[in-house]
Specification:
It contains seven helices and 13 strands. By secondary structure, it is an alpha/beta fold. The protein is globular. This is Peptidase M43 pregnancy-associated plasma-A domain-containing protein.
């Protein structure tokens, strides 16, 4: 009996030691895995062919709006047509955002945008947002296209709001209940806009379904200007954002600093224009980060930058964030069912 008790005690001790060893090994493996994952995510930005990994998925489900096209004719089909027509192909359904246009004119009814400009603005937005990312990116994450549709318009004749001179006037315009629609993206087209930081081509709050664009110098017809402000509405910050901390140029802290987007290169407010030619930036060691003195090499093409006409599009993770944020804002088409569309 005593021998049996000793044997049991020895076995219990061995079991405890094995369990402890297993926990240590498991923790070590977890730490190694986490470290490797961070390294891969960082390198995936620079070398996408080397590490085709997945970025985090948005936490909210996507609203389904089925839009498909015939290969030959471009005709749009609903789900029943897809099952019956062998020539049609299926694309991931886009997230369709409804846009309400608010024309602000002088008190006498003059000035501002032409109604025909609505079509140009919608087309410009779709040229930037309505892109299903494919190729190597498709191995990283499934990003849905964002598609905009005209949901109507209103007009307000007011000298006060046509030329906005201060934040008080700006906020009063956005709070005008005769113009605002809660379940749409509201675009206000004003003559000029002067806010705390000076004259602006447009303005929009982060995760706010209201964006203001000026018609002065036809800025409202520039795809990069309108897309930039809509990007703010859908939750994106400037690439040179510093409020969350300075972003390292080696991508090591991109999740938590700068614009909070891992695959947009670190940026600073303004790089010297002498280093920019034909929308290409020549890396200059003089302009380096405070992390490990890595020179900045920003994307001049990113819509959320301040590089004017160089801006053409968004990054993969920016698209992901806007996908989820459009659902959160509730400015998309009615979800859950199938819908035919002629966009």
């Amino acid at each position: 009996m005593e021998k049996l008790s000793k044997t049991f005690s020895v076995n219990l001790i061995l079991l405890f030691l094995c369990s402890a060893l297993l926990i240590i090994v498991s923790c070590s493996q977890e730490e190694i895995s986490t470290e490797e994952d961070v390294q891969k995510r960082t390198e995936a930005v620079r070398y996408p062919d080397k590490y085709p990994i997945k970025y985090p998925e948005p936490v909210r489900p996507f609203i389904e709006c089925v839009v498909t096209h015939d290969n030959q004719t471009g005709v749009v089909y609903d789900e029943d047509d897809i099952n019956q027509n062998t020539n049609s192909f299926y694309e991931p359904s886009p997230i369709i955002i409804k846009v309400k246009f608010n024309f602000i004119r002088r008190s006498d009814g003059t000035g501002g945008a032409a109604e025909a400009d609505m079509t140009t603005i919608i087309n410009n937005l779709n040229s930037v947002f309505n892109v299903h990312i494919s190729g190597i990116v498709s191995t990283l994450v499934d990003v849905k296209r964002i598609q905009f549709t005209n949901a109507g318009n209103d007009t307000l004749n007011s000298d006060t709001y046509f030329e906005i001179d201060n934040p008080t006037e700006y906020n009063a315009l956005l709070q005008n209940t005769d113009l605002y629609e809660a379940n749409m993206l509201n675009i206000y087209l004003v003559g000029s806009l002067y806010l705390a930081n000076g004259n602006a081509g447009g303005a929009a709050g982060i995760m706010d379904n209201r964006a203001t664009i000026i018609t002065e110098d036809n800025r409202h017809l520039e795809a990069s200007t309108v897309s930039h402000e809509v990007g703010h509405s859908l939750g994106l910050y400037h690439t040179h954002k510093e409020d969350f901390g300075l972003e390292c140029a080696d991508f090591s802290n991109g999740y938590t600093t700068g614009d909070l987007v891992i695959d947009t290169p670190a940026d600073i407010t303004f790089l010297p224009t002498t280093n920019i030619e034909n929308c290409v930036y020549t890396v200059d060691p003089t302009f380096a980060d405070l992390c490990d003195n890595t020179p900045y090499d920003p994307s001049l093409q990113n819509i959320m930058s301040y590089y004017g006409s160089c801006r053409t599009g968004f990054s993969v993770v920016q698209h992901m964030k806007m996908n989820a944020n459009a659902i959160t804002l509730g400015i998309t088409c009615e979800g859950g069912g199938n819908s035919s569309s002629s966009f």
